Amino acid sequence: MGKSVLVTTTAPAPTGPTEQAVSQLRGLRTVIPQGHRPSARQWVILCGALAAAPMIEVHMVGAGKVDPIVQPISHYAYVPTGYWMILLGSILLALSASAISWAMLRTGDQRLRMPAMLLVSFVVAIMIVGIFPTDLPGTIDLSLSAQAHRWSAAWAFLILPIVGLLACRSEAVLPQFKVSLLRLSMVVCIATGIVFAIHLPLAVVGSHIPMFGAIERFGFLVMVAYMVVLSGTMKKPLAVAVRQ
After folding, report:
1. CB of 120 within 8 A of CB of 101?
2. N or C: which terminus of the chain carries fewer CB neighbours within 10 A?
3. Which residues contact 115 (CB under 8 A, 6 or more apart)?
């Protein structure tokens, strides 16, 4: 009666570059394409739209108590629910900036690391703006809360266009948007610099620009619109491969 023999063979180790590449790809599977997930731009648009609700609410509650042409939005902190609505608006702006920062880091481009970290500083600054209210109108000696609020607001406005200027150096920014993003960032940066060059010396002595409230409200609209533009200029990875 014949005996059966079990013969085992060992596959040779990959030697050539093509065989090595195929070997590395084995055990990998492709997960959901990135296009099926909410993009940074979609998050920014959503958060920006939601942030409009608390701002409309405080303007309605504060009608007749706060002059929207002269007084800043922070003075609504002293009307009913005003503090919480301002804090909610700050949280939504922070989420928008966080989505852009995360999208920058996920591109893998080293040149976007600095803009992404500056956006983290924007998140911290805008949260300080919401958590620490300014002083009551007419206060002469500024409290620590008011100083933290005002300087953090100034930082948030100034740093955002700088993020765009730095991002323009990256290859992860879509080529068709590089020139327009650069021009827009320069315009916003120069305009912000002019406003603060006039306003900050006046603020130190307890004064302010005429129609400062209207200028500030327009500035926040520009801030949201700028983040929408910035979030839509970066390339997105189509898919992610993970090892089984």
Report:
1. yes
2. N
3. 101, 104, 163, 164, 166, 167, 170
Max Cα–Cα distance, the chain, nearest Å = 109
End-to-end CA distance of the chain: 45
**Which tokens hold the place of 70?**
């002269």
| pLDDT tens digits for range 65-117 | 999 999 999 999 999 999 999 999 999 999 999 999 999 999 888 999 999 99
Helix and strand counts by DSSP (H, E) for the chain? 7, 2
Rounded Cα distance between 152 and 94, Å, is 13
242 forms bridges with which residues in the sheet? 29
